[in-house]
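quick one before i forget lol
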Amino acid sequence: MYSETLVKGLVNQELRLRFFDLYTIIKSDSSEFIDLFASMYRRFLADGSSSTVRSTAEFVLITNPDNQWGKPVIILNDEVCPLSDSRLLEGYAYETILSSIITRIHSHLLIHAGVVSRNDQGIILVADARHGKTTLVLELIRRGFSFLSDEMAAMGRTDHLVHPFPRSLRVRPGTLELVGFPDAAEGAPTWLGKLILDIEEIKHGCLGKAVPISHIVILQDPANAEVEMADRRKQEMHILVDRLDDTLFAAISQDEGVTDVRVDVECGYPQIKLHAIRSTFVLSRIEALCKERQILVLDVIKGIEGSPTFESTAKLKSILQIQAVSELLRRFQGGYKSELLQDEFGGSSTQLFMEIASIVSQAKCHRLFVGPLKEMADLVCNMSGM
């Protein structure tokens, strides 16, 4: 716990944002960090009133180590998290605050997915990392679809619509050239090697509105098409930590849900690679082990099975809705830390599954075996009647 008076003289920058039913205040002594968050979430900027939201969350980042903790810290609603490594101030602080925001939203179910719309049809594009989700979203925007998000499907729990989540895109210049928007890269700010662009800076007038969910498309590498569903339950996961000791490695290796544990180094930090059954529960146990040892979890990437080659012919196949809902559930944002999951569903993923199924009950569901970009976009266009 901390006292507001202890940090009052240490921070002089403030940003107020609204994420659906959550009013968010971010304070810092770093104008660069506040500017970064503001540029990523410029369409979420809030006025001074918080009377119409369900709750308020406050976060503090102090980058100057000349404070009572003797090092930079992040304060997440009273919990103080010291940062021993100055390299963590930018990326880790951003991701930690964002993750904490996501866990506090109740009004919408947030799913890691891209979303576009056409003729009042919302299309959710679900994919693991490096399966071309953002590139496909931009290609569809070029073809006249509206943009809702390249990162987050925000499904309204009351109206059952999918809502815009227009975070600024982080894209490589080569991606913009590939989809026909090379001029958008000129003068764009960069962060951690990628450009930061509002969608209207890429294509004016393409930001969409909340729409019914008409289609769910699961992007899959055709090389994994024959993998049995039982095998898919064993998910690959990479966990980046700020340091690693032998006792943590041993404890993770002995977890009954974990196999194939190994360690690589990513950007100077240890990266624990493993396969896990029921990865959400395994991750919660690993995070608890790290917290006991004051080891920071810097990043978690799930579903890594190598990048598709995109050389096979793209194919679209209808699937059962229960299969699509399972894929959405696997990508539910907030995971076991979600206040919604714990407070309203008692931690039951089954109840969450049922609510997702209710929201998408009218949607047609498909699996898109990835291939050349033009072929994938053609299939989505034909599917939606364009």
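fyi The chain is about 30% helix and 30% strand.
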